[in-house]
Amino acid sequence: MKTFTMDLAGRTLKVEIGKVAAQANGAAMMFYGDTCVLSTATASDKPREGVDFFPLSVEFEEKMYAVGKIPGGFNKREGKASENSILTARVIDRPMRPLFPKDYRNDVALNNMVMSVDPECRPELVAMLGSAIATCISDIPFDGPCAMTQVGMIDGQFIINPSQKDWKDGDLKLTVASTKEKVIMIEAGANEIPEDKMIEAIYMAHDINQTVIAFIEQIVAEVGKEKHTYESCAIPEELFAAIKEIVPQEEMENAVFTDEKQAREENIKAITEKLEEAFAENEEWLAVLGEAIYQYEKKTVRKMILKDGKRPDGRAMNQIRPLAAEVDLIPRVHGSAMFTRGQTQICNVCTLAPLSEIQKVDGLDENTTAKRYMHHYNFPSYSVGETKPSRGPGRREIGHGALAERALLPVLPSEEEFPYAIRTVSETFESNGSTSMASTCSSCMSLMAAGVPIKKMVAGISCGLVTGETDDDYVLLTDIQGLEDFFGDMDFKVTGTTDGITAIQMDIKIHGLTRPIVEGAIARTREARLFIMDTCMKPAIAEPRKELSPYAPKIVQIMIDPTKIGDVVGQRGKTINAIIEETGVKIDITDEGAVSVCGTDKEAMDKAIKYIEIITTDFEKDQIFEGKVVSIKEFGAFVEFAPGKEGMVHISKISNERIKNVEDVLTLGDKVKCICLGKDKMGRISFSIKDCPK
Fold it and tell me: For the chain, which terminal residue's Cβ has fewer other Cβ atoms within 10 angstroms, N or C?
């Protein structure tokens, strides 16, 4: 066993190699503060048959014992991966995948098991570093090292690798991965951070990454294994030469140079059929023909863009596809909007509900236990013209939904301003590039159409990249379509308002980006999102509606003395359930005494609020109440003014005339008006019907 340590952002990062998991290709027991993560990397001996992609799987396993908890549910054991686990695994996958050989088809699994959590040291960061170290010291071919740093911001000051609390409460959640030379991945959520401030934070993280990379290189030098040889799955050059004889470059260019996705696919289908007929006798070539055509198409598109300055659909490099937007297309829902950009079309529906409908989160971060705003993204097969059964949301869908959710969180009103749980759902009607950014635009409009008083409009766009042989030989592409995403080198998504960035997600397929590319992409996306807001979104809906939909629940919030919460709830919930049963409303109460009354009938809501106010107000002299006779005794009657709130009217205070029996004047269920007389000699509150003003 060997132990390596370094100081990282004022805390000790310790890596133990060789103590556990010796049968994995690479394993690292990671300690950062008291956070402990076991990271392993394993690879199969042979390539997986029948695949034309690199089969990499990344896992981030949240063990509840890491925070001293037993999992909930019937089985009392960890179940399927949480949303946070999936998003963390995606952040690890994105920077590491491009560093494996392009012709490598062996299965590779990166597993990160969280065994202990120190709230000062986020386990997600430890897992990111652990995956890089485990892979670098293994015998798996990998063009590393790479490292990751997280940056938060409190009161305008950057914090390197912030604690769980600072990460949650700060104005910036930035993760940056780097190789020795370049930035390779950016993921961010931000509270309208200006572009120049974001760039400063990115390159601060990049500089920190260089110290971590030097640390990893030291580990590899001492304990790293020799990389194993592997069976290359590269396409034979002879096949490429034969394809070009049958389908010249010009024919392939004509096939892909169209602004209609379906037309392009038909053209490629015709070329494929021609080549299948030509190579019918060569089974070895037929087995890889699809990948060969893909590579030929890719090289053609890249050459057209980089050398000829032509995009497949004929647009200028900074031109956005035709835009369209509308609201209120779905009846009876609380809010709806559709955003169309070329052949990408998203319909978003907004639903409002009481705060009791918020999503409970059971995870390793004690600072995050509930989500008030939920954005869900769906990608049915018909949106790309395919026929596949729906299997529920996959990792891609969860990732896209989380990105749009992160984009809009900074502009949502507080619970005090708008005491609702909010859910938006993006339905992909058609897809040809960057549906997550269209989801952001449609979600923003849907929220405004529902009457959610968001602070500012948010839009998003993606910027692509095609690179040449040198660092300064590149072309940036505004609003990439699917083909440019598949064949290009970058998908740089940025969302924001007119004042700053709210989210970033960057995927690349090359070994990093230079600073001019990062700065250029951020500038290009700002220009594009402002154009989208001004020319498309604002004409459809310029600001949030002042009134909620008639189909949306109305919520009125009042504050009560927290010591009176028990009076409102009653023994075993008897009082609050009686109010709910009588009025038909929903009632939520926080520990701070905020009472939210939700319903669609104003009269019923007012009645419930009146009951709550009576229950929580001490009886005082000369107060007038209306109540119901609930009990009759020889000496008087008991009147219920609200569930659990009763007062006694003495027989002498029922009528101006002398009565022998209470039943002569009152019966159970009678509605009466009473005035409070204050306390009697024994300190009891008394009421009068006869002294009540007429």
Answer: C
Q: In three state form, how does the secondary structure of 439-500 look?
A: HHHHHHHHHHHCCCCCCCCCEEEEEEEEECCCCCCEEEEECCCHHHHHHCCEEEEEEECCCC
Q: Report how many domains make up the chain.
A: 5
Annotated binding site: 485, 491
CATH number of the domain at 77, please. 3.30.230.70
Residue 178 lies in a domain: no
CATH of the domain at 647: 2.40.50.140
Same domain, 241 and 360: no
Q: Which domain holds residue 633?
A: 624-688
Q: What is the mean pLDDT of each run of 10 residues along the chain (694 residues)?
A: 96 97 97 97 93 94 94 85 94 96 96 96 97 98 96 96 94 96 96 97 97 98 96 89 91 87 89 91 87 91 92 93 97 97 97 90 77 95 90 91 96 92 97 95 98 97 94 94 92 97 94 94 97 98 94 90 91 91 90 89 91 87 90 91 87 88 90 88 84 85
- CA angle, 187 then 297 then 433, to 5°: 35
Q: What are phi and psi of 10, to 5 degrees?
A: 85, 5
Same-domain check for residues 292 and 397 = no
Specify whether the CB–CB gap between 254 and 270 falls below 8 A. Answer: no
Predicted local confidence at residue 426, as pLDDT: 97
